[in-house]
Predict the structure.
Amino acid sequence: MNKFLTVLCCLSLPLFLSGCWNDLGRPSQQSQAVQQRPSSEPRSSELKLVTLDFPPMEYEENGSVKGIAVDLVREAFRRMDYQQVNIAVYPWARALNMVRTGEADAIFTAYRTPEREEYLDYSRQVLLQQDIALFARADNSIPYTGQLSDLQRYIIGVQENISLGNAFDQALLRGQLQVDGAQTTKATMEKLLDGRIDLAASNRYTALASLQKLNKLNAVTELTPPLESLPSYIAFSKQRAHAPLRDRFDAALASMKADGSYERIIRSYLYSGDSP
């Protein structure tokens, strides 16, 4: 009897799924194509994805993981017909170690660095383009022309283990910059507001979301131009041999950009106030 029920469920599930639609509308022919799963790729195992607390891109609230990047990733895997995708928030260093060792299948939103490319298969499609910006207290005028050399005399707050672009990372390795690390961008902004650091360097949207949560948007000023505009990606653990999965994710993400759903997800956070 159990065997009969198992067979019946297996036959019924595809018919049920074919009738499901989401708010983004009817899948295009391109998105239907990415749902064709190669027979060599297992369906039953749950995918474990890791990310960090980096609102409004990704964050945990009331037991749920949400954010711009989270919704983009979930929609891409939905188009790939993956039903079991678990996304968890960890400290960034731990999340990186989990994909390095194969404990997790993929990580996002990750900047591309030579060290990480040794153990990660990066998506070719950009998940999110991110501006790296500098912030100072509104009452502290700091001259800045866009050159890193302008910053050598100042203590710059950063979130630990976060790449801020190749130019910034290399200047740091050469000892040309003074940095002060914190576990989160919110903690970095609190140090800036308290006068413990001179500047804060962060993803622009994450910094603004943190300041909004602290009700201190008017207490800081953003220096221009940004340090860098960086592409960020989802990257798959080489320990799990997920290169074929990475390629299918790229196709799904490309279809989202083509049909407008990618931009709709981003705009829903930037203009609806749905960030913490």
User: Anything to note?
Assistant: Residues 17 and 245 are 21 Å apart (CA to CA).
